[in-house]
Specification:
The chain is an alpha/beta fold. It folds into 2 domains: 67-331, TIM Barrel, CATH 3.20.20; 382-583, no CATH class. Helix content is 25%, strand content 27%. Helix 3 crosses helix 4 (110-117). The longest helix has 17 residues, at 528-544. It is globular, with a radius of gyration of 24 Å. The protein starts with a helix and ends in a 10-residue tail after the last strand. 54% of the residues are buried.
Length: 593
């Protein structure tokens, strides 16, 4: 809208497009809630009060807040395409997300990123993109693509790109890896104008502390979503980071970090001050069953208020805070000149969303979308799973001297612990030990048909028989499987190839549940309800095998991520994340805490 027209509309000289009457305005700028009428024209808020308007809607006392913004999410983890994801979250009040498409980028490279950049042309949800910084995430795994600084430079100036996504390779930052530094410098502030802020660079630095943390932050990295305890988050906050408080499907950190959000120097925080001003609620990963059964950021707000956080502070953490961090100057608040992305809900406890406006247009109401939208899927993203013919010999682990290193799951976290156990041995080979819940873990390279297969053991799934497998395995997304029996593991892996990617559950040599994910082996083009139903059936099938993990496929997917301590498994072998190298499966650890 040109400036003359805006001023004329704001002064009431021309009628507004829409007047929202009798709202309880949640003002995240002042920290207040008060009655107001809100006038909208050309997709912008033009003012408050008694305006003439072509159309009016009486909100009858509903609370009116800015549209919710998820500051960090991997849409691929929902198993949905971007447009199907938009259909899922818009009715819950989410009007913008900042996504990191490094899942599809690790599989399909630039074509995967362009698919996400194109999504804004096909749905009303604002999908902003942070360009993946780590494709591949490390040298310790095999991915389907590689993105260099030169490649990222060609995409940097796209209108939907906000900066560089989570720099997971923090060892590469600290060791001054040349390619890592090139990427950081590409998005850094200009050397000639030292006080000008560059593009945002997100962080990913679990348990990093002290001088290493100072070096990491000083390299231009200004946020982190990996804090799992209060002291870690407080140190990062004091050192200048925005703290992204993660509350997703696999990792739930809100409860542990809540004291940081509710106090200043140990005292209760007022609405406009406190650590909460530099904190953002994010999802990171949100599985389809959670989206269907619990919602999105509306669920996050419900939990935050239930844990005692002031509702205005909570709302600010999904509106103004992410908008200001990412430099989205027209989003995140309800004020003249701001984009009219608005959410109307009935109370400050359940946040039951009644109406959602995008650019001043009603797009969702009472849990449903008011329009249908779909995005074409590029042919190159429907790639086949490439693995050679495997046999049980490929899964055999001959016993070596020393104890066995075992990955232990930590409930509701993606970090793991290292255990040292005595292996169960049969005919000279280490095998799964269901009595002690020590199961075999397998990762099979699936991009180049190299036959590389990583073998290890994991504790915490609880399977008594059978196996589960998936082509979703962060971040390179090779095939990962866990099981009590080599034959069932092999059956599950082979079925993933037949599906062209997806999930599989086997028992006694038979497939008892599966889900095809033909888009990069990561996503389906089917709607949320259908996908959530199938995932629910898959989870029930794993429970029949004895699995005690609530979301086993999500937990399994993170066991191949070699940037999250302590132990992980990739197609190249067992990774000790503290040492950032491949280590033998047998033998005592060679470092001390």
């Amino acid at each position: 809208m040109n400036l003359n027209r805006f001023i004329s509309l704001a002064r009431g000289e021309q009628p507004a497009d829409l007047l929202l009457k009798n709202a309880r305005l949640v003002n995240v700028l002042s920290g207040e809630i008060y009655p107001a009428d809100v006038a909208v024209a050309n997709g912008l808020v033009i003012g408050f009060g008694n305006y003439r308007a072509r159309k009016s809607i009486n909100l009858r006392g509903l609370y009116l807040a800015p549209g919710f913004i998820d500051g960090h999410i991997h849409i691929e983890s929902s198993l949905l395409t971007p447009t199907e994801f938009a259909k899922a979250v818009l009715p819950n009040g989410t009007t913008a997300v900042v996504c990191d498409p490094h899942e599809i980028a690790n599989v399909s490279g630039v074509s995967g990123i362009k698919y996400f950049l194109d999504a804004n042309n096909h749905c009303p949800l604002s999908i902003f993109t942070m360009l993946p910084s780590c494709v591949p995430a490390t040298h310790l795994e095999t991915s389907g693509a590689e993105l260099t600084a030169r490649t990222l430079a060609k995409l940097r100036h796209h209108k939907s790109v906000l900066g560089l996504a989570e720099m997971m390779n923090y060892p590469g930052v600290l060791s001054r890896d040349k390619e890592v530094l090139k990427k950081l410098q590409l998005f850094a502030r200009p050397q000639s104008v030292p006080y000008l802020c560059g593009d945002r660079i997100d962080g990913h630095a679990p348990l990093l502390t002290g001088k290493d943390l100072a070096a990491y932050i000083g390299a231009g990295i200004k946020s982190d979503h990996e804090s799992t305890n209060l002291n870690e988050a407080r140190e990062k906050l004091r050192a200048g980071m925005f703290i992204m408080v993660r509350e997703g499907t696999a990792a739930k950190n809100m409860a542990a970090l809540m004291p940081l959000l509710k106090s200043v120097n140990g005292r209760p925080a007022c609405r406009s001050l406190g650590a909460g001003r530099r904190c953002i609620f994010v999802s990171d990963d949100r599985h389809p069953t959670d989206l269907l059964n619990h919602g999105h950021l509306d669920h996050t707000l419900r939990k935050a208020v239930r844990l005692g956080l002031n509702p205005v502070t909570a709302i600010r953490m999904v509106t103004l805070n992410p908008a200001e961090y990412f430099g989205l100057t027209r989003l995140g608040a309800i004020a003249p000149g701001y984009q009219a992305d608005l959410v109307a809900f009935d109370n400050l406890k359940t946040f039951n969303v009644r109406k959602v406006f995008k650019n001043g247009r009603l797009v969702a109401q009472d849990g449903g979308n008011l329009a249908e939208y779909r995005q074409p899927i590029p042919r190159q993203l429907r790639s086949a799973i490439k693995i050679p013919q495997l046999s049980q010999n490929n899964l055999s682990i001959r016993v070596r001297s020393g104890t066995l290193k075992v990955i232990e799951l930590i409930p509701n976290q993606i970090i793991t612990r290292q255990l040292l156990e005595t292996p169960l041995v049969r005919q000279g080979y280490a095998v799964a030990d269901v009595k002690r819940d020590i199961l075999k873990l397998v990762v099979v390279e699936r991009h180049k048909a190299s036959g590389k297969t990583g073998l290890g053991f994991v504790k915490g799934f609880g399977l008594k028989n059978g196996a589960i497998a998936s082509s979703v395995a962060h971040d390179s997304h090779n095939i990962i499987a866990v099981g009590a029996d080599d034959a069932d593991i092999l059956t599950a892996v082979r079925h993933i190839k037949q599906l062209g990617g997806g999930y599989a559950v086997t028992r006694a040599g038979k497939i008892i549940a599966s889900l095809a994910l033909p888009i990069g082996g990561l996503m389906s083009d089917r709607p949320l309800r259908e996908i959530a139903l199938k995932v629910g059936l898959l989870n029930k099938a794993t429970q029949q095998l004895g699995c005690r993990v609530k979301d086993p496929f999500m937990a399994l997917s993170f066991l191949a991520l070699p940037v999250i301590p302590e132990l992980k498994l990739t197609d190249k072998g067992l990774v000790d994340v503290k040492q950032f190298k491949i280590v033998p499966l047998f033998g005592a650890t060679d470092y001390t805490d």
